[in-house]
Design brief:
The protein has 3 helices and no strands. It has 92 residues and is an all-alpha fold.
Amino acid sequence: MKYGLEIAVITLIIVFAGIFLFQDAAGENSWGGADGEAAELIEATGYEPWIEPFWEPPSGEIESLLFALQAAIGAVIIGYVFGYWQASRKNT
């Protein structure tokens, strides 16, 4: 099959898009996750933190930006390592 990889990638994109659209239509709480529930459980026990953070982002957008930047830096490092590994295998 000449276009096997392309067909597989397009199929995966369609499947993930379908899942995303289905989850998005399910409501606001569908992307909740366990972090919020864990925070509520910890607050319900009366736990008080030992220390305070030395800096908190001024808004949720800045926090998301820093998280995305961290993910991008990690992706660049992983891509570099895989590229270096692939090139060293090709040159030997």
